[in-house]
Structure formats: C-alpha cells, structure tokens
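Students often ask what a holo structure prediction actually looks like on paper. The answer is less mysterious than it sounds. You provide the chain, you provide the ligand, and the output is a string of discrete structure tokens encoding the 3D arrangement of the protein together with pyridoxal-5'-phosphate.
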Amino acid sequence: MQVPLLDLTKQYAALRAEIEPAVLELMASQQFILGPKVAEFECALAGYCGARYAVGVSSGTDALLIALMAEGVGAGDEVITSPYTFFATAGSIARLGARPVFVDIDPGTFNLRADRVEAAITPRTKAIMPVHLFGQLADMDPLLEMARRRGVAVIEDAAQAIGAEHQGRRAGAIGDYGCFSFFPSKNLGGFGDGGAVTTNDETRYRRLVRLRNHGMEPKYFHGEIGGNFRLDALQAIVLHIKLRHLEAWHAARARNAERYARLFREAGLLHKGIVRLPQAATDHPVWNQYVIRAARRDELMAHLKTTGIGCEIYYPVPLHLQKCLAYLGYTEGAFPEAERAARETLALPIYPELTEAQQSAVVDAIAAFYRP
Ligand SMILES: *Cc1c(COP(=O)(O)O)cnc(C)c1O
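The corresponding structure tokens follow.
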C-alpha cells in the first residue's frame, strides 16, 4: 500500500465545489491585490486565533521578517531562538543584519528550553522568537514573564501551530506577534505561498500594515522602508474557505495521533525505546507533523521509502551547523538536544484524510524493519 506523507488532492476533492465558484468570481472581478477579500480573511483569522488584529502577508518567512522589522530589529541586535526549526526562523533574523542567538531545545517537546533563555539575554537582545514546532506550543509563560521583565518582544513562530491551544490561549495571540505560514503543507495551506502576522497591539498593527506595502501611508508617501509583503486576494479566498474546515481537520489529525499510539503499542514497538512517540505537552496540539524518534533512523527511512511509505526528516541539520550561519561561530556539540533530534527523528503521515488501513500499513512496515 502506498502511503504518501501528505495527500492534498483528497482535501481539494472535498472542497472543490466550494472553492471553484469563488475563484471564478475573483477572476471575473480582476481585483487581485489586497482589497475586501484579504480584509475579510484577516478578520476571520484574527477571530480564530483570539488576536485583535491579523495582517495577511506573502509567506510565513515574510511574516517573521515583517514582525522583526516592526520591532525595529536591525544590525547589532540579537534575537533568541531555537536551533531546531525550519531555516526561515533564523534566516529572517540574519537577513536584517541581526544575530540569531540559539538556545537548546527540550527533548520532550522539541521546543525552546525556557529555563535556558534568560542566561542568553544581553543588552542587545531585541526579541525572543519561540517556535511552536510540529503543532505544539512552546513554554510561553516563563518566556513572557522574562521578556516583560527584560523589556524585549516575543515573536511567536506559529507557522506549524495555527489553532494550537494551551490554557485557553491560542498560538499567535500569546506573545507580541504571531507569525503564520500558509505554505500548502501547513495545516491551513493556500494555493501557493502566503502568511500572516497577528498582534493585539494597535500601534504594532498599524506599522505592520505600512511595512507590508513599502512603508507607504498615504499613497506614494513613504515614512519608512518596507517591502512588497502583500497577500493575494486569491490566497485569501481559498484560505477563508479552508479556515471553516480547520477545526474538523485538527480533530482528524488528533484522532490519527491516537491511532498511532494504539497501533505502535499493539505492535510492541515501544519497549526498549526502539521507537519513541511524540508526547503532547499542549492541551490541544494540532499535529502539523507526527514526529517519532527511531533507532537506526536513516536505515528505517530507506526501508519505508522502498515500501512506499512517505516519511521525512524535520530537520536533518540544526541551524547552528548550517553552512551559511557558520559565521556565528557555533560548533558541533553546542546544542546536544537539537543535534540528537536531527539524528533521531522521523515524520510519519498524519494528514486528516489518512485512513486506519494506511496507518496500519505504516506501523506494519516499521515493525517489519525491526523484526529480528
Ligand atoms: C513553514 C515554516 C516557516 C516559513 O513559512 P513559508 O510560508 O514557507 O515562508 C517558518 N517557520 C517554520 C517553523 C515553518 O514551519
């Protein structure tokens, strides 16, 4: 049985009748840039996240970049973040001439170790950028407390965690900014690139809106240098329709996570730590990825690929060891948990339309690999 890591064609088949007329209508209107469709989606997104404002932007990467710009981050500044995340998190910091300062992760959640962050704060620290990796919230309370006390901003990289909730608060509405990605493989994915920044602060919101459009206000008057970070109306239409289905998809992902836990237990794979399953530390994680730790991970991955089971390593090289960030001066061993995660983890299919038979095939293939 073939089990892809992600199959978006199933989702599209279910939504086609809703999406196609709306897209055709947009094409007839020829109003592609910003406008009412983007504003309507922003309003719905802010409501969903429990934030006061949302600003649609061109990608998750640009969401991070524009949040940093709105906070005035630039040359000589430092931003504390995780070394175990997608490159964009640190890349956006470095692109502004600021220095990404890494702190190791918690091996249980793969997220920033909050108790190690304070020691990394210096007079140059402008922001802390926790990542809600794989759909679980970072340990926000201690981060917020020290950020307030030390006068630095908190920018959530919520690209993988839209809708993730802990103690009644949702990703993106907890810190000063929440950055979302609508890359097609995210839980809310567009028909191309897209992103958004949420905030509860009106001054920050207004600055984000200006920066997204060349710092322009009013038309052709530029008070500061921004960029073209606009979200297309086409993406807004698709995302707005999909947003209404997001809770049902999250419920299906949670059901799939529970099924894996049962199937792995029944297969007897959890003994001796051959396979370790992800543990939910968030009240409602959204399972953007279901990431296990596995003995002989690379061999297991090769075996699964030949069996037709989709899987992927997120991420094989921690950011402090990326070639383009070598100038930061970090060496191997600097962040042992991030490095261990890069060696041990493997993401398995978890998308909402996955069937129980497909999940059994995944677990059977893994059991076959470890059978003596
Ligand atoms: C996907 C992702 C991004 C970047 O989003 P794009 O829309 O692809 O630019 C940033 N951070 C994390 C953690 C991501 O998973």
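The chain has two domains: 8-103+111-243, 246-370.
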